[in-house]
Amino acid sequence: MLDSKKILEILNKKGYDYDVHEHQALFTVEDSVKLRGKIKGSHTKNLFLKNKKDKFYLISCEEHTNINLKKISKSLDLGNLSFGREEYLLDLLGVKPGSVSPFALLNNIDNTVGFYLEDKLYNSDFINFHPLTNTATITMKCDNFIEFMIENNKKIHIFSSTKGIIVKTYEC
Fold first, then answer.
1. What is the mean pLDDT of each run of 10 residues along the chain (172 residues)?
2. Residues 128, 37: contact at Cβ < 8 Å?
3. What does the alpha-carbon distance between residue 23 and residue 33 come to, in Å, rounded to a whole number?
4. Residue 84 carries which DSSP code?
5. Cβ atoms of residues 139 and 25 within 8 Å
6. pTM
7. What CA dihedral angle connects 89, 92, 94 and 100, to 10 degrees?
8. Domains in the chain, please, with CATH?
């Protein structure tokens, strides 16, 4: 399993431009708002979800987006969703609660976790995610993030939380 140091090594090896901000551990959006300082770009919340058929999803959305699990599960045809247990999170993504981010999908070699990125983030110039630890934040251009994820064989569904539709999909 990759850790935060390895994620940074991969970004550096591939020549991606990003900023790293170290901070106290952040567990909630409220913690993030209080402690992040003036980190540019859109800030996120990341939801690790499971349906009744044992399919797993990571939904990354703008930090203030209100995600209604019943509505989003129906509109995106994901099945009846609930939050995934910590043991699944550790097993599939190699992170603990509070450190969930799309970078953890690199630990999901079999691509068994579907990835959904909200269009509000997709349309941002810069986005912020934890690098597998909640004591740091990576800021990078959204288009570079998309490129990085595709380069690492991750399929990305861009969805609209307001319209409840997938607006674009990037295949790996």
1. 95 96 75 69 95 97 93 94 97 94 97 98 97 94 98 97 95 84
2. no
3. 12
4. P
5. no
6. 0.93
7. -50
8. 4-170 (3.90.960.10)
